[in-house]
């Protein structure tokens, strides 16, 4: 589950990580109230207005702006709220902004120069351990840093039996070139950050930038936080942090029905049991001259109700010109699936696109007979290749 | 010969009396697998599916001589079940459970590291040595005995591959479903290595998917090993968009080197017979072995 910046920062702050403070606002008027409150709490008189959407590169799309007065807060917040923010990470239409974070200005002048760093916490899959990845090159695209100056990216692996050790936090602070109070602040920052990562069951923390202020404080100015969906059962308090407006509505609906669905841009819908076979089926559609319209794993029990639900989800996409159903019946018998397809087809009534059904495994022959004798406009197949050829022919 | 499981394996089922455990243990017993009992804490002393139920894995090892375990325990308790099996001296721990939190798997992975056991999975279909032992949730009838080993991250795609191989008149030594999670006990390379070293296995089918480096690691190992045993490979997810999780928690393209295209390129460079179409796996195996 992805979180908004303001939600991620709340979690960080809860575990003692210093953050750039801010208050979320849903309208220009709210934004002014938020700014006044922030002024009272922090003394800031400049404010950063930040669009809250699930996408990086918000600044590039005009979703992050500095306001030097309450008047400017109102104007800028009014412009950003409701806009379709287009960033390098969104689709061409962009993402609608429903709320902004009014944040304190932390780049104030002082005894030393400010400095920006990059820091993330994530799983090193190959090692089966978490790691902290960090760089002196903060505030910019880390992929770009990795390509142009890979020697400026450091990693610190965490031994799960002992957790992040103080010497590791010190090494990070030294590698970032810090000394004095900023050094101490950074060790504290890293330690709290890792603790927050573990305690919140996160699967990604990306803090870019981590800022050293002119008075040598270390704080998170941005926060990209992803929580491990599999661990949500121990974080009931995070459940309401999910913002469904940020997700594809068809995917949300499919998820509620227990279907694993990913919306894609193509013209051939597919319904498959098993994630690997589903991906392979998408590849086959492409090789047959189509483009997959979706990924859809119906799971182990492909019964009539699930097949019908899956049909309805796929048919919501107007670009779908054909549907390929590919079920390998193991424990679930093919004739049951075939009956499910027939029942679902009849229940829905007017399916206007050709349907190719490939059933293989237990009772595949019986299933093919059922489909062939059903009187429905369904093309049946038993071999994978045969299914591909039929997709090719209906698209031609 | 075969790898990991055979007719002499003494298998227990953790999560034996739950609905998943009951159903699949029944299927395994029907297949002829040597299930010696199961574990459900608090139900020790009872009989289930005509087999003894134990309170702990240690008790199952002591009283029934168990050396292999299959885990159907729900996600919140599965990592604990893995560690209990390792602690009790189980040698092969096959974890079917899907949806274990990553943080739990980091702990379990670290815990078993220096213990004498091998973890398969989690989030996998299990392991089958045809006509000897089915320790998993796969449909047994698809897998006929023979000389082709299979390593795969996916369930139904494994059945698909096995079916294609069998329809070419060939058969399977052992099929290993290694699982689709970000952290798994046995890597593609380790599973491939076992099968390459198995004297009865004449060819290996290696099925991967987008995300991670496991297939590239296996390919590089194969090249360095100098083995003459052929590997036939397929990578699912050529059409998957970057940054989206495709069903399996680990199936996500993170960078340019974990796409299907990149993986297939490395595999080809390492001498693996890569097919682009998932419909051609069986045909390719027959062609390579002829």
Automatic annotation (TrEMBL), chain A:
Cofactor note: Binds 1 Mg(2+) ion per subunit.
Catalysed reaction, written as an equation: succinate + ATP + CoA = succinyl-CoA + ADP + phosphate; GTP + succinate + CoA = succinyl-CoA + GDP + phosphate
Domain ATP-grasp fold succinyl-CoA synthetase-type: 2-210
InterPro entries: ATP-grasp_succ-CoA_synth-type (IPR013650), ATP_grasp_subdomain_1 (IPR013815), Succ-CoA_synthase_bsu_CS (IPR017866), SUCC_ACL_C (IPR005811), Succ_CoA_ligase-like_bsu (IPR005809), Succinyl-CoA_synth-like (IPR016102)
Binding positions (substrate): 273, 330-332
Keyword field contains Iron-sulfur: no
GO term, biological process aspect, one: tricarboxylic acid cycle
Required co-factors: Mg(2+)
Record key words, sorted: ATP-binding, Ligase, Magnesium, Metal-binding, Nucleotide-binding, Tricarboxylic acid cycle
GO cellular component, one term: succinate-CoA ligase complex
EC numbers, comma separated: 6.2.1.5
Gene3D superfamilies named in the record: ATP-grasp fold, A domain (3.30.1490.20), ATP-grasp fold, B domain (3.30.470.20), Succinyl-CoA synthetase domains (3.40.50.261)
Occurrences of domain ATP-citrate synthase/succinyl-CoA ligase C-terminal (ranges): 271-391
Pathway annotation from the record: Carbohydrate metabolism; tricarboxylic acid cycle; succinate from succinyl-CoA (ligase route): step 1/1
Subunit structure: Heterotetramer of two alpha and two beta subunits.
Family: Belongs to the succinate/malate CoA ligase beta subunit family.
Full protein name: Succinate--CoA ligase [ADP-forming] subunit beta
UniProtKB/TrEMBL annotation, chain B:
Quaternary assembly: Heterotetramer of two alpha and two beta subunits.
Record: residues binding CoA: 17-20, 43, 96-98
GO CC terms, sorted: succinate-CoA ligase complex (ADP-forming)
NCBIfam families noted in UniProt: PRK05678.1, sucCoAalpha
Domain CoA-binding: 4-100
Enzyme Commission (EC) number: 6.2.1.5
Catalytic site positions: 248
Catalysis performed (reactions): succinate + ATP + CoA = succinyl-CoA + ADP + phosphate; GTP + succinate + CoA = succinyl-CoA + GDP + phosphate
Pathway(s) where this gene product acts: Carbohydrate metabolism; tricarboxylic acid cycle; succinate from succinyl-CoA (ligase route): step 1/1
Catalytic EC class: ligase
Name used for this protein in its record: Succinate--CoA ligase [ADP-forming] subunit alpha
Top-rank lineage group of the source organism: Bacteria
Protein keywords: Ligase, Nucleotide-binding, Tricarboxylic acid cycle
Family: Belongs to the succinate/malate CoA ligase alpha subunit family.
UniProt cross-references to InterPro entries, sorted A to Z: Cit_synth/succinyl-CoA_lig_AS, Citrt_syn/SCS-alpha_CS, CoA-bd, CoA_lig_alpha, NAD(P)-bd_dom_sf, SUCC_ACL_C, Succinyl-CoA_synth-like
Positions of substrate binding: 159
One Pfam family in the UniProt entry: Ligase_CoA
Function text: Succinyl-CoA synthetase functions in the citric acid cycle (TCA), coupling the hydrolysis of succinyl-CoA to the synthesis of either ATP or GTP and thus represents the only step of substrate-level phosphorylation in the TCA. The alpha subunit of the enzyme binds the substrates coenzyme A and phosphate, while succinate binding and nucleotide specificity is provided by the beta subunit.
GO BP annotation list: tricarboxylic acid cycle
GO molecular function term, any single one: succinate-CoA ligase (GDP-forming) activity
């Amino acid at each position: 589950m992805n979180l908004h910046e303001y939600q991620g920062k709340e979690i960080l702050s809860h575990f003692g990580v210093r953050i750039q403070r801010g208050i979320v606002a849903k309208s220009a008027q709210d934004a002014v109230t938020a700014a006044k409150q922030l002024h009272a709490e922090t003394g800031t008189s400049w404010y950063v207005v930040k669009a809250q959407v699930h996408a990086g590169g918000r600044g590039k799309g005009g979703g992050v702006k500095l306001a030097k007065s309450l008047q400017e807060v109102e104007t800028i917040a009014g412009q950003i709220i409701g806009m379709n923010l287009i960033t390098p990470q969104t689709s061409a239409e962009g993402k609608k902004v429903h709320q902004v974070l009014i944040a304190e200005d932390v780049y104030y002048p002082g005894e030393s120069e400010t400095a920006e760093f990059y820091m993330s916490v994530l799983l090193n899959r190959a090692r089966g351990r978490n790691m902290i990845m960090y760089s002196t090159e903060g505030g910019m695209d880390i992929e770009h840093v990795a390509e142009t100056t890979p020697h400026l990216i450091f990693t610190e692996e965490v031994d799960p039996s002992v957790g992040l050790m103080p010497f590791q936090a010190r090494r990070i602070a030294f590698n970032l070139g810090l000394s004095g109070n900023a050094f101490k602040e950074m060790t504290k920052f890293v330690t709290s950050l890792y603790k927050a990562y573990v305690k919140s069951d996160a699967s990604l923390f990306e803090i870019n930038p981590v800022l050293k202020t002119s008075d040598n404080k270390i704080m998170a100015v941005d926060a990209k936080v992803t929580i491990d969906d599999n661990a949500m059962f121990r974080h009931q308090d995070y459940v309401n942090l999910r913002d469904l407006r940020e997700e594809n509505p068809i995917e949300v609906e499919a998820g509620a029905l227990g279907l694993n669905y990913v919306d894609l841009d193509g013209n051939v819908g597919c319904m498959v049991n098993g994630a690997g076979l589903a991906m392979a089926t998408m590849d086959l559609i492409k090789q047959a001259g189509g483009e997959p319209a979706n990924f859809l794993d119906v799971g182990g029990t492909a019964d009539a109700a699930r097949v019908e639900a899956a049909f309805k989800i796929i048919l919501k996409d107007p670009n779908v010109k054909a549907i390929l159903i590919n079920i390998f019946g193991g424990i679930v018998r093919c004739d049951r699936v075939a009956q499910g397809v027939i029942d679902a087809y009849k229940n829905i009534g007017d399916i206007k696109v050709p349907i190719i059904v490939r059933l293989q495994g237990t009772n595949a022959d019986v299933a093919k007979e059922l489909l062939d004798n059903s009187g429905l406009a369904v093309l049946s197949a038993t071999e994978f290749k045969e299914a591909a050829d039929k997709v090719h022919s209906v698209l031609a | 010969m075969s790898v990991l499981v055979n007719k002499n394996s003494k298998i227990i089922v953790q999560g034996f009396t739950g609905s998943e455990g009951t159903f699949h243990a029944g299927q395994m017993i029907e297949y002829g697998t040597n299930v010696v009992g199961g574990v459900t804490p608090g139900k020790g002393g009872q009989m289930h599916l005509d087999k003894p139920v134990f309170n702990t894995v240690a008790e199952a090892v002591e009283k029934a001589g168990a050396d292999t375990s299959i885990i159907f325990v729900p996600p919140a308790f599965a990592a604990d079940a893995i560690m209990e099996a390792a602690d009790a001296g189980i040698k092969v721990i096959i974890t079917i459970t899907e949806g274990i939190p990553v943080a739990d798997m980091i702990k379990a992975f670290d815990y078993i590291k220096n213990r004498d056991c091998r973890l398969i999975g989690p989030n996998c279909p299990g392991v089958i040595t045809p006509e000897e032992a089915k320790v998993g949730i796969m449909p047994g009838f698809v897998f006929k005995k023979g000389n082709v080993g299979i390593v795969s991250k996916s369930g139904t795609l494994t059945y698909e591959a096995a079916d294609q191989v069998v329809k070419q008149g060939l058969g399977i030594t052992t099929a290993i479903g290694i699982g689709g999670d970000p952290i798994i006990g046995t890597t593609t390379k380790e599973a491939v290595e076992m099968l390459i070293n198995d004297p009865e296995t004449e060819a290996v089918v290696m099925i991967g998917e987008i995300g991670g480096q496991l297939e590239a690691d296996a390919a590089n190992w194969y090249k360095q090993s100098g083995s003459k045993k052929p590997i036939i490979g397929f990578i699912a997810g050529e059409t998957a968009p970057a940054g989206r999780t495709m069903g399996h928690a680990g199936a996500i393209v993170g960078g340019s080197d974990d796409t299907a295209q990149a993986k297939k390129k490395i595999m080809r460079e390492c001498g693996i017979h890569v097919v682009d179409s998932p419909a051609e796996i069986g045909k390719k195996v027959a062609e390579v072995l002829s």
